[in-house]
Amino acid sequence: MEIQPVTAIIGAEIVGADLENLTDAQFATIEQAFTDHLVVFFRDQPPLSSRAHIAFGKRFGKPHIHPIAPGPEGHPEIMIIQADANSRYADGNNWHTDVSCDIEPPLGSCLQLRVLPPVGGDTLFANMYAAYETLSPMMQDFLADKTAMHESEHVYRGRYSERGVDDTGKVYPSAEHPVVRTHPRSGRQALYVNPSFTTKINGLTKAESKAVLQLLYVHQQRPEFQVRFQWSENAIAFWDNRCTQHFAIWDYWPDERMGHRVTVKGERPFHEDRDSVQSDLRVSRRHD
Ligand code: SIN
User: Fold this and answer.
1) Which atom number of ligand 1 is nearest to the Cα of residue 231?
2) Is the pLDDT of residue 280 over 80?
3) Domain of residue 230, residue span
4) pLDDT over 70 percentage in the chain
5) What CATH number does the domain containing 204 carry?
6) What is the pLDDT of residues 232-242, one digit of tens each?
7) From 94, 99, 109, mutation site for ligand 1 pocket: most ligand atoms within 8 A of C-beta
8) Is 150 a catalytic residue?
C-alpha cells in the first residue's frame, strides 16, 4: 500500500488496499494515515458487500446507528446517501460533522459511492485542527471552557418522509459538547462547532453566541483548510468526524448520486487543557 497526500493540510489517497483482506499491519498503516491525514480515500475498489463494509468499519469501533435515516433491509448499520430528481434534500449539503447532536457522536464515517452523476457531486473536507490552531491565542483562551448545544430537530424532522419514514412523536437527539475538543488519539485540539447542528454557545447571550459562531464558521471554511474529493465509481472516503467537517455539494440535480455509509461510534467529546501542537501546521497566520 502507498499513502499519497492530496494536500499538505488534509486528505491522503491510499493506493493498493484490499479492504476485504487486510492484514493487521496494513490496518495499522491505514489507521495511522487516518490519524495523520484526517480523511483517507480509496479508489479502484470493488463494490463492498454490506457485510464487508460493516466489517471494515468495525475494525475502528462499534457501528453507529443513525437516529432516523433508513438503511437497507436488515442493515441498520448502513446509511443510504441518495439524491435524485425527486429529492427535496441531499444528505450533507452543508458544512457539518456527522450527527454531532448525539451524546457520543461518530468517530468516523466510511462512504462508498455506487452511483455517480455525470459531473459534480464532489465532497469538501476541512481540517478542524487547522481551524483551531490558526485562531489567536486570545480567542483560543476564550473558547477553552465553552460548551455549545448541538441539536437535530431542525435538521431531521420530516427529512426522510420521501423515503417512507414517519417521524411523528419521535424525539430527536441533542447534546452539549465542548467548543474545542481534544482528539483522543492525536491529543490535538479541534474546533467542534458546525453550522448544521450547533445552535448556541452556552453562557453567551443569543446575539453574542450568533456573532461568535458566525465568526468561527467563516474561519473554519477557509479554502486552505480544505480538500475537495472528486469521486470515481466505487471510491471510498473515510473521514474522522472528531477533527474534520465536510460538505457534500448538491450541484448535480436532477441527476442521481447514491452510496452506502458505515458510521463508527465515537466517545463523548472532552476538552483537556493543553498547549496546542502547532509544529506541523503549515497554515500560518499570514492573513493577520
Ligand atoms: C455525508 O455523509 O454527510 C454525505 C457525504 C457525501 O455524500 O459525500
Assistant:
1) 8
2) no
3) 2-267
4) 95
5) 3.60.130.10
6) 999 999 999 99
7) 109
8) no
- Specify the pTM: 0.95
Domain count within the chain: 1
Respond yes or no: is residue 43 known to be catalytic. no
Q: How remote is the CA of residue 69 from the centroid of ligand 1, in Å?
A: 13
Strand pairing category for 39-42 and 12-15: parallel
Coil, strand or helix at 250: coil
Residue 275 lies in a domain: no
Q: Does ligand 1 lie within 6 Å of residue 64's CB atom?
A: no
The rounded distance, in Å, linking the Cα atoms of 133 and 191 is 9
Containing 248, the helix (H) or strand (E) segment is: strand 244-248
Residue 186 forms part of a structural domain? yes
- For atom 7 of ligand 1, the residue with the nearest CA is 248
**Pairing mode, strands 123-127 and 226-229:** antiparallel
Which atom in ligand 1 lies closest to the alpha carbon of residue 81? 7
Query: Which residue has its alpha carbon closest to ligand 1 atom 6?
Result: 248
User: Is the minimum distance from the CB of 101 to ligand 1 under 6 angstroms?
Assistant: no
Asked if 79 and 263 touch (Cβ cutoff 8 Å), the reply is: yes
- Residue 96 a catalytic site member: yes
- For residue 274, is it within any domain? no
pLDDT at 162: 87
Please check whether residue 257 lies inside any domain of the structure: yes
Angstrom distance (rounded) from CA 119 to CA 198: 31
DSSP codes, 8-22:
SSS-EEEES--TTS-
- Tell me the per-residue pLDDT of 201-256, one tens digit each, with 9 for 90 and over: 999 999 999 999 999 999 999 999 999 999 999 999 999 999 999 999 999 999 99
Beta carbon of 92 within 6 Å of any ligand 1 atom: yes
Beta carbon of 39 within 6 Å of any ligand 1 atom:
no
Q: Which amino acid is at 236?
A: I
Report the nearest atom of ligand 1 relative to the CA of 98: 3
